[in-house]
Every structure is written in C-alpha cells, then in structure tokens.
Amino acid sequence: MGIQGIDLTPESEEKIIRLCKTLPEKDFQANRLDSLTQDLEAYPSEAMRSVLNQVRMAAERQSTILLLGETGSGKDYLARSIYHASRRASGPYFTLNCAAVTHEWAESELFGHERGSFTGADGRKRGLLELAEGGTLLLNEIGELSLPLQAKLLTFLDAKKFTRVGGEKTIRVNARLIAATNRDLEADVETGKFRRDLFYRLNVISIHKVICASNLFLKVTPDTWAFTVPFPIDRSLNDTTREMKAALVKEALGRAGGYREDAARLLKISRHSLKHYINFLGLNGN
C-alpha cells in the first residue's frame, strides 16, 4: 500500500521537487478514529461522550449495528459517523427511510427488480444493497418494514446474497447494514409486529441515544427545579397560581431543612411574608 512518487527536474535528477506518500489502510483507519475521538472530547455531556465512545468501538468492527432513539435524536448522524470512521469509508453510503415507502417500493429499493416484474418496471434496476457493495447501507425506521420484507432481509443477513424482484440470478453483496428505529422493537417482537430472529440478527451491536438537557447544552444544576400544571380548564387562574405558590414554598422549606428564615432567603421574601404564605396556603400542618 505504501507508494512513493518523486518528481525530478530535467536539469538534475538529484533535485527533489515534490515528495508524496500514500498511507496504508490501517493508518487511514487510525486517522479516522482519531478524528472521531476528537469529536468525542469536544462534547461536555457525559451521556453523549458515552454514545460516541460506543460509536468509536462500533466503527472498528464489521458487525451489523442497531441504533435506537427518539425521532430527532441524531441517529442519522451516528450512522454517518460510524461509516466515516470505518474501513468502509472509501466505499458508498446509502440510506433508505422504510417508513416513507410502500412494501412493494421498499422491496424494489432494497433488492432491485428485473424488467417486467411488476407494472411500471420498464427495465432492470439495481437495489441499494447491490449499490452499497463495499460500503454501508442505513435502513432508517426499520421497524416499519413489512413481515415479508423482514424475512427477505433476514435471509440476506444470513447468506449475504439475494435475488432481485422478479429475478432468478443470485447476487452476492459485501455491504454493512446499519438499522435505526424510534420504535421499541422488543415490544414489537412480543406483539408479533417484528420478527424475533431478525431482531437478534440486527442487535449484534446496539447503541441507544437519549435526548436530555445535557445533550442540548442546557445548564443542569442541583438548584434546577420545575413545576408543571395542566391548563386550568376546570379551575380558575387563582387556584392554579395558589397551587404553584404552595409548591414553591414547600420546596424552599425542604431545601432549608424546615428553617423558615433560610427558606424566606431562598424565596427572596421577608420572614413575615413567608409566614403569611404558610398560613394563607394552609401549610402549617405540612
């Protein structure tokens, strides 16, 4: 893999104008992983650092990967990070949103089709699995695949070969599969919506991403406190406000260990005002 090129001037073959060298594949791999490590160190969130560390380890392997997390949590980003840091980074990268296509169209997109295999199939089409030879294919929202397609995908994962829709020729492909979903696949397995054998075949390496305040770079401290009330459909605004004030006073008293002077200081009111609120809100017995 190591190739060196030297350009010499016509006047003197001893004078080097330019020297270039290509790195072995393992060195490129190390450089990609180093770049991912730098990205990891840039995140202040411990949860995000943990996820990216799992991404780094997954990128070093060739196994199938299952990405779990809510919609908008960045599963596409994680998949691309794995691809770019992997040995397959020089190969193609494709993605298919399984929730955005019908069963027939998803089968054609994945496995391709032969001419005349269905209405509108005017010619042969290579599917994404075939096009992803040597690279990576992300199947987003894989939980939306129909059961027949799940079975065909399982066959591919086991044998690394398939046939196009309407075709007879067996096609072998060396492509890495990354699956992503916002569904609870284990629950879908129990209800029969997702094949158990396919779930275990996909779940070789699983990475779960949770959106939390620290991921959004929101400041979370021991002083953080929140109070949520429903819209006062059957109550007045005064009732809702009273409930909120009572909750704040209780929280302040709790943080102050029951000392009213300290609780009043936390609420930035006088001790006399705190006593008034306690009596008015009926908190004497609490």
The rounded Rg comes to 30 Å
- Known CATH architecture of the largest domain: 3-Layer(aba) Sandwich
CATH class of the largest domain: Alpha Beta
Task: Tell me the CATH superfamily of the largest domain.
Answer: P-loop containing nucleotide triphosphate hydrolases
How would you spell out the order of helices and strands?
EEHHEHEHHEHEEEHHEHHH
Main beta sheet: 5 strands, parallel
Structural class of the secondary elements?
A: alpha/beta
Widest sheet: strand order? 4-5-8-3-9
- Tell me, briefly, the overall form: elongated
Could you characterize the architecture of this molecule?
With 286 residues, the protein is of the alpha/beta class. It has two domains: 25-209, Rossmann fold, CATH 3.40.50; 237-280. Helices cover 42% and strands 15% of the residues. It has eleven helices and nine strands. Helix 1 (25-41) runs antiparallel to helix 2, helix 2 (46-59) packs across helix 3 and helix 9 (237-255) crosses helix 10. The protein is elongated. Mean pLDDT is 77; it is low at 1-25 and 211-220.
